[in-house]
Amino acid sequence: MISVLLLNGPNLNMLGKREPEVYGSQTLDDIVGHLEKTMVEEFGGSLTHFQSNHEGDIIDAIHQAMGVHDGIIINPGAFTHYSYAIRDALSSVVLPTIEIHMSNVHAREKFRHHSVIAPIVIGQIVGLGADGYEWALRALVRKIQSSRLG
């Protein structure tokens, strides 16, 4: 059974209210519920979700994933651009990780164009809205399954 940790950083608890023209109308609960259902029904696995507006809490969740989860999907929010601490935590647990952003960060303000997380993850999905989470889940599960086969 595959177990995935889904991490969401600052302000993502405001999805559905915060800038719906950028992030859409779905709430974080809507997105998580869909992913949990997909994980169980299609992959026979489990998904654990954690959201925090606090960097240290996200780091603790990453550390606690080691030996518990098979991979991580992370939307670090604004931490994407400067949190070397989250980057180091992800590197330390050696779990396949996909970085996700609902908006196309490369088409937004210049400060959003750079990710300190991207160089240490297996992939990055940007600009697909809430659908990006599902693509990240599918890609991560495939990666985990293929690593178990060979």
From TrEMBL:
- Binding, substrate: 75, 81, 88, 102-103, 112
The annotated pathway is: Metabolic intermediate biosynthesis; chorismate biosynthesis; chorismate from D-erythrose 4-phosphate and phosphoenolpyruvate: step 3/7
What is the uppermost EC class here?
Answer: lyase
- Record SUPFAM superfamilies: Type II 3-dehydroquinate dehydratase
Query: Where are the active-site residues found?
Result: 23, 101
GO terms for biological process, alphabetical: amino acid biosynthetic process; aromatic amino acid family biosynthetic process; chorismate biosynthetic process; quinate catabolic process
Catalytic activity reads: 3-dehydroquinate = 3-dehydroshikimate + H2O
Q: HAMAP family this protein is in? A: AroQ
The protein's name is 3-dehydroquinate dehydratase
Instruction: Give the organism the record lists.
Output: Brevibacillus invocatus
